[in-house]
Amino acid sequence: MIPGPSSSSSALPPPSPLVASSSPSSSQQPWYASIRSHLSHTSPATHWTPASERSLLEPYSYLCSRPGKSIRSKLIDAFNIWLRVPEHRLQKVRKVVEMLHNASLLMDDVEDNSDLRRGAPVAHKVYGTPQVLNTSNYVYFLVFREIEAMGHERAEHEGQGSLSSASQKATQSERLLVEEMINLHRGQGLDLLWRDTLQCPTEEEYVEMVRNKTGGLLRIAGGLMTIWRGESEDGAAGQRSTSTTSTPNLAPLLDLIGLLFQIRDDYMNLDSDTYAHNKGFAEDLTEGKFSFPMIHGIRWSESNTNGGSGNQGVDGSSSSSSPASTSPARAAFPTAVASSSSSMPAARPVQPPIVAPAPSFHLRNRQLLSILSSRPTDEHLKRYAISYLRDVSRSFAYCRAVMRHIDAAIWKELEEVERAFGMQSEGNEQLRKILLALREGWWVEGEEDAGDEEVRGRGSSKS
Fold it and tell me: For the region Disordered, what residue ranges are annotated (predicted)?
């Protein structure tokens, strides 16, 4: 549903008539003759029409007309098995999250200079970059108006005092949005900085970037649901569900899902025909993006050109103390993921951005880095880079091994959350189905039984 103009404009006084005339007469004054009175008795919203709203939102509507897989809405429904947010509130949460997601996609496509989104030309190729940027920012602010409206809404079945409670929750929700939108833009900003200055981040820095950029929207969904869950269907706060203070901390699970989702997206971008159809063949290479496979491929070359003694595996083992070696993604988990024992905060505290220093690369490492810096559009050059990642650096095998570790951490965290909610016997089957679906495209049956040996040396065996 596309957001429309505010209904509050109906309470404003009727606009003063403005009559344009090139030849004023004694009976007909020019529009500017009464401009002071007009501006004093009307607001900008007075003359904002539904037609103007539709025109402004047209790039947004264009993107929404080709829906994606709605993974975030499905996750919201799955988490609601635990949180049990009243349906009229849950609909608002779904709407807000989808608005934020689609608005961010409009912005992402501009910043990445993309050609396709969901198999169709990107919005800024159709409507132009200036209009799309304005529309994207406009939708961000419409989200805050939706949250504000939640604080003033009171359904017919709600009892006394519910309006005051809703207003407090709306204030909490706005605070959550501000903090996580800051995190989201910091993550996106680092991603763009690394790309445009050709700075290859470490895997740990990549994890923190993803935690901000991808995990932020999931934490918004989980945070909003946690805030609004304390309201019962009959309006008496807390009768149907426990208060938010006793809600298990969902942030670690959401962060892990976001990390798996992003690494999977990076992997599939270079190794999926479906992604090639929807977004273009190996678009991340054309964008110049330091995706997870590229980070491993570049830094694998760096460590292996110094006598081949700088290899590390996903379990953190190393045959050298070379400073050029990249620490494994798994090593970041203890600091990137918190315990499930406490309630979910309104928002993860905003941390100062981490700026990666420009690394020194060995001469032989220039192949992938040079290809990435050229923003290649030639299919043969892209296929060469992909074959290098698959057969030389074994980066695809490494990605799969890392994703298996994250997948295992997700299932372990899921069991902890289920125990906290008292669902050991039945479990959250809806969420389990989503997690199994996230294995599509990269999970190789039996490969997990091989352990980490195939990637321990970062390229010592087949991919």
Answer: 1-27, 301-333
Distance CA 30, CA 125 (A): 41
State the CATH number of the domain containing residue 123.
1.10.600.10
| Containing structural domain, residue 255 | 54-456
Structure-token pair, residue 269: 């971008």
pLDDT tens digits in sequence order for the chain, 463 residues long? 555 544 444 444 444 444 444 455 556 889 888 898 888 888 888 889 999 999 999 999 999 999 888 899 999 999 999 999 999 999 999 999 999 999 999 999 999 999 989 889 999 999 999 999 999 999 999 999 999 999 987 654 455 556 678 889 999 999 999 999 999 999 999 999 999 999 999 999 999 999 999 999 999 999 999 999 965 544 444 444 444 447 899 999 999 999 999 999 999 999 988 878 778 899 999 999 999 999 999 998 655 644 343 344 444 444 333 333 343 333 333 333 344 444 444 444 444 444 444 444 443 458 999 999 999 999 999 999 999 999 999 999 999 999 999 999 999 999 999 999 887 657 899 999 999 999 999 998 887 644 455 444 444 334 4
Q: Which helix (H) or strand (E) holds 117?
A: strand 116-117
* pTM across the whole model: 0.77
25 belongs to a structural domain:
no
Domain total of the chain: 1
Does any domain span residue 30?
Answer: no
CA dihedral 109, 111, 113, 117 (to 10 degrees): -10
- Percentages helix, strand, coil for the chain, rounded to the nearest 5? 60, 0, 35
At residue 122, the 3 state secondary structure works out as: coil
How far is the C-alpha of 456 from the C-alpha of 445, rounded, in Å? 19
Residue 358 forms part of a structural domain: yes
